[in-house]
Amino acid sequence: MQLGEFEYLILTAAARLDAEAYGAAIRREVEDVTGRVCSLGALYTTLDRLETKGLIKTTIGKATPERGGRPKRMVRVTAAGAKAAADFYRIVIRVSRGVAWATK
After folding, report:
1. Distances (CA, A) of 33 to 3, 36, 37, 60
2. Alpha helix (H) ranges present in the chain?
3. 66: number of Cβ within 10 Å
4. What is the pLDDT of residue 73?
5. Which of 53, 55, 84, 91 has the fewest CB atoms within 10 Å, i.e. the most exposed one?
């Protein structure tokens, strides 16, 4: 399954965050790593698309006082999601061979 760059970033952030992966934490991780703004609309649209593709599974966590009693949408990368991310990564590495910036 072919991924887009943003889908890959979301999957990778969710995998890195593991049990702490939920919308706001994923957004922060993507923004911290890329230095780019990650809008909530883009994030949740992408989470929905990844779930439809079977690459993530989301569940509703418990409500927390620091979120005003709102529950977190927890994210878990599926085996298919891990494979898709690994395939994307391998493609980027392969296509980057021999390019000057790949060695810096």
Report:
1. 19, 8, 10, 26
2. 5-17, 23-34, 40-52, 79-96
3. 6
4. 92
5. 91
